[in-house]
Amino acid sequence: MRARKTAIFAAIGCVAALGLTAPAAAADAAPTISAPASRVGYGSITITGTAPAGATVELFESAYVYNDFYASPDYANGGVITTKASTSGHYTLNRLLDSGFRFYVRANGVESKRISVAMGIIPTMTMSASNGSVDVKVAADPGQPGLAVHIQRSDSGTWTTVNTGHTGSAPDGVYTTTLSGQGSGTRIYRAVIDADKDNNLLTGQTTSISLNVGSGSGGGTGGGGTKPPATPPTAPAAPKAGDVVFSKIVYNSPGKDTGSNTSLNAEYVRLLNKSRTTINLKGWTVRDAAGHVYTVRTDQRISAGKYVYLHTGKGTNGRPDSRHRYWNSTGYVWSNGGDTAYLRTGAGKAIDSCKWTSDKGKTYC
After folding, report:
1. C-beta atoms surrounding 7 within 10 Å
2. Is 0.85 surpassed by the pTM of this model?
3. What is d(CA 123, CA 223) in angstroms, rounded to the nearest whole number?
4. How many Å apart are CA 134 and CA 181, to the nearest integer?
5. Which one in 37, 158, 235, 295 has a CA-CA gap of 20 to 30 Å to 4?
6. DSSP 8-state secondary structure symbol assigned to residue 25
7. Which domains does the chain have, with CATH numbers?
8. Which of 183, 182, 181, 178 is CA-nearest to residue 138?
């Protein structure tokens, strides 16, 4: 049986009601925050601002699409990202971006305004041709599924779209196709990837590739990518403990416990890939202390730095996008007053766990 908080106490305007004036020291100036409007491709940005001299400045973030802020995890050292304002009241922070993000800071309990940082897409296109047929591979940085890709050919100085598709999830951010009937002689191509407003991603395009598509064969790369290696790459190492972690668990869905599917799906765990490679979770399990077990029975790849959400209720895996999966439970799984979540590989190897002992509704592990 899920335990619920039964009362919330709030004191509103007590000082004003008594006709008293709060001490001036109780009102700290709001911190400020500034960052570049965007960056191009995966990498870091510098966040700066002002805060009361010597105050601890805490960074909060959210993927642009979700707008659900949480304390920014410090992946290098553990814990969350903080810094101290200098004696002149200035601070500097660095943060890696893999998509569009939102940020704010807090100092002495006072929050700054919210800001957003967009990310420009860097597409890379590799092409090879033989007898009028052209094989095309387009990769996106950041590696994001579902981005609209347009393969364009220059015809007498005018760019014509000859193929359109979307980046996929095997692995994320890659689109492949074959162009047939491209004739003979030299053709010029480029790839354009459309902006993604939901994730605050900006459009990008490759450099042009000149390719002999005739009776012979040829190849080329645009956008700074590299051709496939001549020998097969070394198989990636097996995932180790800490490569994928519980980065957030909402164990007490907001509002009244109605047991509706909407309420059940508001209870979820969020898994983060902290490694530098894509990891397939197929066969992995998520379980609680009471022995409820969810098994990932189909491919579920997480690119480096990306999230996957596992909702308690019913739904279709891959909707609204490839980051969402559903336990299909008809009852709540996680205990509000205290529970432990466990993540294991299909071979039973322990990868991560997250424990809580009080009902605060959610934890960032």
Report:
1. 4
2. no
3. 6
4. 9
5. 295
6. G
7. 31-118 (2.60.40.10), 121-222 (2.60.40.2470), 244-363 (2.60.40.1260)
8. 178
